[in-house]
Amino acid sequence: MRAVIQKVSHAHVDVIENDTDITTGKIQSGFVVLLGITHKDTEADAYYIAEKITHLRIFEDVNGKLNLSLKDTGSSVLLISQFTLYADARTGRRPSFSNAAKPDHACKLYEQVADILRSQGIEVQTGQFQTHMKVTLCNDGPVTILLDSYKEF
To answer: Thinking of the domain 2-148, which architecture would CATH place it in?
Structure first.
């Protein structure tokens, strides 16, 4: 499971329905999380990513140090499904998305991550799974972090 986390001062996501933009999620201070799920991901990956998101200390404390988490600041998450995080563009010019999970598996784990975050007391707004979306955000810092439940450094 992969998550691109952007610390934002505000963000919202719109889905397009009958040529009309409809806002499905909106937050002020917090994280926009682009979440990609692969076919081998399990509930353990969902818990790992959700726990990391909840406790990631990338908000400034009174000394200007990145030392506070979502829980510490009462900030929110705008969670967006993003199968393209598993694109493979190493060969050719058109990316392959064969590493992305099938929609039924991905949706289940996407919703599980949202539920875990909510159970931690985090306000979670979402896009709409398997829909064309427009995400608008103001990256604060800028701070952008990549999490991967499989990556070893």
So the answer is: 3-Layer(bba) Sandwich (3.50)
- pLDDT tens, 69-102? 999 999 999 999 999 999 999 999 999 999 999 9
Q: Hunting for tokens 């896009």 — which residue is that?
A: 127
- Active-site amino acid positions: 82-84
Query: What is the CA 26 to chain-centroid distance, rounded?
Result: 14
d(CA 47, CA 139): 25
Helix and strand totals (H; E) in the chain: 3, 8
List the Cα angle 126/24/12 in 5-degree steps. 80
Which tokens hold the place of 140?
């604060």
Tokens 């398997």 belong to: 130
DSSP for 105-148?
HHHHHHHHHHHHHHHTT-EEEE--TTS-EEEEEEEEEEEEEEEE
pTM: 0.94
